[in-house]
């Protein structure tokens, strides 16, 4: 599990640097409608206080259904603050952004293989083998 947290951290940093990270429930929904074949990985994040947000939970259910239907690996993170520390504010406005859903897309570069993404794909496959379809990952400090 600790290795998965480190791999997720590395993937988020790498994807952001390459411009392959889409953050926010609504921006992610737009991307899923426009270019669903380009989505490579999904992160859902919620703190304890978000668990009672019915609208957010409905969005999570729809996102999970999309990911399962399109064979996209998906994980949960229970600490939006740690996620914000990794991803940071919006580059456009400098404002904090919605990090409840993050999609990692395939870059246009041919042959780009991210070792962190491959580790996370393996982690998700192992989790599915024990019937954990949306495993929770703890990000490192």
UniProtKB/TrEMBL annotation:
Q: From which residue to which does the signal peptide run? A: none
Q: Which residues form the Ribosomal protein eL8/eL30/eS12/Gadd45 domain?
A: 7-88
Q: Which GO terms describe its biological process?
A: apoptotic process; cell differentiation; positive regulation of MAPK cascade; regulation of cell cycle
* One GO CC term on file: cytoplasm
Q: Subunit structure of this entry?
A: Undergoes concentration-dependent homodimerization, which is required for growth inhibititory activity and enhances interaction with PCNA. Interacts with GADD45GIP1. Interacts with PCNA.
Function description: Involved in the regulation of growth and apoptosis. Mediates activation of stress-responsive MTK1/MEKK4 MAPKKK.
Name of the protein described by the UniProt record:
Growth arrest and DNA damage-inducible protein GADD45 gamma
Q: Organism, per UniProt?
A: Semnornis frantzii
Q: Which lineage ranks, top first, belong to the organism behind this chain?
A: Eukaryota, Metazoa, Chordata, Craniata, Vertebrata
